[in-house]
Amino acid sequence: MKKKFVKKTYGILCIAVSIFALSGCQNTKSEDNTQQNIVTESDEISKEEVKNEEVQKEEIKNEEPVKEEAQKEAIQEEDSSKKLLIQPEDNSNQQETEAVDTEETTERVYMNIPKEPTEITSDIDAELAAIEAEAEILNTSLQSGELSQIELNATSAELYKLWDDELNSIWSRLKEKLDAETMATLTEEEIAWINEKETTIAEIGEEYGAGTIRPLIENDKAAEMTRERVYELAELLR
Fold first, then answer.
1. For 176-228, how does the pLDDT look when each residue is reduced to its tens digit (9 = 90+)?
2. What is the C-alpha separation between 183 and 179, in angstroms, rounded?
3. The pTM is what?
4. How many CB atoms lie within 10 A of CB 28?
5. CA distance 125 to 28
6. Do 167 and 228 form a contact (C-beta atoms < 8 A)?
7. Pick among 1.10.10, 1.20.120, 1.20.1270, 2.40.160: CATH of 115-237
8. Nearby residues of 230 by Cβ (< 8 Å), 6 or more positions away
């Protein structure tokens, strides 16, 4: 009986040891699988992170040209805005200049402000050519048909003043150039010419009575006679 009990006990122990050994192997394999799974998951996570980083880098690269283009557009818009802000200022300055010129012209026409004396030059022919150019402008204005009677009267007075100023300029130079005897004779002739001019103008003006056109007619005749006298005296300066 004891031998049988011992054999049974020994058999049970062997079976238990075998079961324990099998259980330990299974646990080892499970641990290995677990570690392998952890390593695999870690690798996958690392790959995913690397992939995400690469995607982010690619997105940044793609965004850079867009940002640069946006900055360029912003700079262009800013420059355009500056130009738009500058242009009105330029236009306003131009308008102010034009307004001043218009006011000066209006004053000359309606108030008959005398023109500045013609600049004295050494070449009398060039000087007379410049006066003729100014006179041509006034004559064109008088013949345009766009001026009122008041403007016509004022413009014709300006034309007369143009030639009268030139006559006075030439006369002052003649006094410096000619000797006293010659100048005395010339002065008598000039006085006679002035009297003739005033008489002629008065006779022409009387034909129009108190009409509004009378100043225009008188100024026109005065300008004509004064221009002729300018060329006569200019010969003495040649």
1. 999 999 999 999 999 999 999 999 999 999 999 989 999 999 999 999 999 99
2. 6
3. 0.50
4. 10
5. 126
6. no
7. 1.20.1270
8. 128, 131, 163, 166, 167, 170
